[in-house]
Design brief:
Peptidase_S1_PA_chymotrypsin; 16% helix; disordered N terminus; globular
């Protein structure tokens, strides 16, 4: 009887980690990563912005109970921004709706000096509520790094839907993740000559230079110390995504520690 009870518990646990998402219509498309478990990346946010030419789908990170951090290119010039917390599936359906919390942004702020060609200062803060929102346990803000924290050569995680070119085509139905390695600036400059120290950008890549199709524009790159549950936000996917997916090249990110004081000014 004890064995049967244990098996039932294991079965329930396994069931709790799996989910079925509404199909995007992209048959057999994955983002080359592993399917996430419910609540595995509680900070991951789906960002949908409306522009005159249509909608853009990006990702971001929950940094407080009323703020999301994403990249400027996802929201600058938009007429409307929606953020969805707790979204394991790219498209909502009746089975996933009870876990999703969607807010229309009240305002967003793009960092001064944002350059759409070099992607310098490609960060934006989105405020989606006037007061702190009460959140369920499977949605949780990520920790911000200190200015002097560095994670060169550390193993880190990226999560996303494989959203290439802001489109739902070629996207996975569900949230995926993969592990990357933070590169030194010398390694990063072999891919992007204009990425130099102290400019707020850095690179990460899969081991063995395997393709990374998981990271969306704005996808959070996080570090988790062994034995701890809390993630620390190191970066946001900014550019080089297509080459990372097609050829396994390094992808470039905004370095959150370089922008952390600006971000914290909105959280105080």
């Amino acid at each position: 009887m004890q064995l049967l009870s244990a098996l039932l518990v294991l079965g329930l646990a396994a069931t709790a980690t799996c989910y079925t998402c509404k199909s995007t219509g992209n048959t057999n498309v994955t983002a080359n990563g592993e399917q996430t478990r419910n609540g595995q990346f509680p900070h991951h946010v789906l960002v949908v912005s409306t522009f005159s030419e249509g909608k853009r789908y990006c990702s971001g990170a929950l940094v407080s109970r009323k703020h999301v951090l994403t990249v400027a290119q996802c929201v600058e010039g938009s007429s409307k921004v929606e953020v969805t917390l707790g979204a394991q599936c790219l498209l909502a359906d009746t089975s996933d709706n009870k876990f999703r919390y969607t807010f229309t942004a009240l305002e967003h702020f793009v960092k001064d000096g944002y350059n759409s060609e070099t992607f310098e200062n490609d960060v934006a803060v989105v405020r989606f509520a006037d007061e702190n929102v009460r959140l369920p346990p499977w949605i949780k803000p990520v920790a911000l790094p200190t200015v002097d924290e560095q994670y060169v050569h550390d193993e880190v995680y990226t999560s996303g839907y494989g959203l290439l070119n802001y489109k739902t085509t070629n996207a996975a139905d569900y949230l995926e993740f993969t592990t990357l390695r933070v590169l030194s600036y010398d390694q990063c400059q072999q891919e992007f000559e204009f990425v130099t120290p102290e400019t707020g950008r850095f690179c990460a890549q899969r081991d063995e230079e395997e393709p990374n199709c998981v990271s969306d524009v704005g996808s959070p790159l996080v570090f988790k110390q062994e034995g701890y549950k809390q993630y620390t936000l190191l970066g946001l996917t900014s550019f080089g995504q297509k080459f990372a997916c097609d050829f396994g090249n390094a992808g470039a990110l905004q370095e959150v520690r370089a922008h952390v004081e600006w971000v914290q000014s909105f959280l105080e």
